[in-house]
Amino acid sequence: MMLKKAKYVFFAVLLVISASNVFSQTIEKDGRGICPNGSIRLYINNPNDYTGFSWQIFDVTSNSWSSYRNGSSTANSYDLSTSDAGDYRLIAVPKSGGANVVFNTVTVVNLTSPPSIITPANPVHQICKGDALVLNGNIETGVYYNWRLNAGALNVTVPTLNAKEEGDYTLEVIDQTTGCVTTSAPYKISYFPPLNPVITPVPAVCATSVPTFNINANPTGGIFAGTGIVNTTVGAFSPSAAGVGSHTVTYSLPQNNGCPNIVESVVVKVNNPEPKITSSTGGNEFCIGQPASLEASTGFTTYEWKKDGVVLPEITAKLAITSNGTYSVKVQDSDNCTVESSPFMATFENQVQPSITSIPSVCGTNHAAVPLVGLPVGGVFRVNEQPASTFDYAKLGIGTHEVKYQISGALTCLNGTVSQKVVIQRIPEVEFAGDIFMWKGAFTILQSNITDPGYLYEWLPNSYLNDATLATPQAKPDATTTYTLRVKSPYGCQDEADVNVVVFEKIWIPDAFSPNNDNVNDFWVLSGINAYPEAEVKIYDRWGGVIFYSKGIYTPFDGTQGGKQLPAGAYNYHIIPFPNMPSLELKGTMMVFR
């Protein structure tokens, strides 16, 4: 029972599979139908599963299917392009084997296209170049518009077009649902034949001084305009009015049929080459021995240099020079305009050697101001780095002053400086502290307030001196003498002064005596002391006590104090010949013997 049931199931499945192979296949088409003068493509999506394709069309007359012939041959491909309406089917052999498969029937119908008509706003076929003619297409619903000029798309998708170019205009009207297209009859537009003006080219004008000339154009009757045109009818062009530069001149020619003028133009180039010579120094002067050059304006095609009228071999814009002369350069520009520069006078200079009139060094400031004079003229004086025109001794004062004269020029060789040191020496003022007192037979040092070793010294008289040219000589006169000191500075400034050397007679002081009443050295006798009536004599014991004092006329010391004999021994003494001259005080020790 179960085996029988399984058999029925297998048979049912086999029937389903067979039915699927025969009836479930679908024919596709690439449109809704056939547009006028068009076709439609029929095809299946799985052609690789089949072979032996055969397309059939239903013949209404015979009420039967017949093979569809595409022209003179039978259609035997998986796809079919046809322009005939009707019912179509496809029979194919499965590559997997089994019975032929009959694809489903598909119906192809004929479609209609929307109308396309061009109507000009103005019924003309000729326009002026630059004008436009409005072309209107028929207004339809459910359509697209596409304008073409000479079959090329204009990317205009509205029913109205402003046609400016000449050629054949067509309008495609496309049904939005079926895609059927109707192309209008072409509407031809052309331009009125133009009168094309031609201007004779004008060669470059080489100077603004060239006289006015006419620019030629054909046909005549137009109007000239532009910078430099001084007569618009004949095209008179004035280079001086135009100036240097490239000037566009237009020629406007009227047209027939009321069309706009056609304008042609020409460029008139006015040159005025003016070669200028500049120098490496920026002027006409150069330094001998230093590099020097001249340079002409750049931008020219050729250069010809001359010196004193003689052509030089240099042919570039730069020329090295080494000597005086008159230089010039002839240039030519790219338009073959030739001109020669103005002459350039070159002068070579030696290194300047400035000098100043010597200014004397002096002693003291009591001198008239000296005008400052330098050569070459035109320089600047400075005294101690301050601008000056005179050297004023009184204002400048004692010291060493620098006078500087500086010449400044545009060139290094025209720059120079010279200087001089001027010394205003202080005049020596010789002074002595006072008279010098000394004992006869002794020596003293003569010294003023000036001891500078750079000075010259002269003592007069030169007697009793160890060296009369020293600042501090030793003097040992045997009598009071007045010495004169002359002092001269290194710059010759001098002064002199006197000093008195007072020589006193010497007091003879015994270094011992014996007061024993033997009438020999019983007294301490000071020989010569009576020459000093104001003299003071003091004798001290070992403890510093005064045991003897005398002032005025000296009474010799007898070795007693208050009538009592002093013991033998050493005693100190102070002898002052002049109480107001403590420097002459005599000190020492003497012995008392018994």
Give the percentage of residues in beta strands. Answer: 35-45%
Number of strands: 58
Number of helices: 3
CATH class of the largest domain: Mainly Beta
- Biggest β-sheet, characterized? 6 strands, mixed
Overall outline = elongated
Feature tags:
single chain; 594 residues; mainly beta; Immunoglobulin-like; 7 domains; 6-stranded mixed β-sheet; 3 helices; 5% helix; elongated; disordered N terminus
Give a written overview of the molecule.
The protein contains 3 helices and 58 strands. It has 594 residues and is mainly beta. It has 7 domains: 2-108, Immunoglobulin-like, CATH 2.60.40; 118-191, Immunoglobulins (Immunoglobulin-like); 198-270; 277-349, Immunoglobulin-like; 355-425; 436-504, Immunoglobulins (Immunoglobulin-like, Sandwich), CATH 2.60.40.10; 512-592, Immunoglobulin-like, CATH 2.60.40. Strands 12, 14, 15, 17, 18 and 19 form a 6-stranded mixed β-sheet that branches. Strands 29, 31, 32, 34, 35 and 36 form a 6-stranded mixed β-sheet that branches. Strands 3, 4, 8, 9 and 10 form a 5-stranded antiparallel β-sheet that branches. The chain starts with a helix and ends with a strand. Residues 1-23 have low confidence and may be disordered.
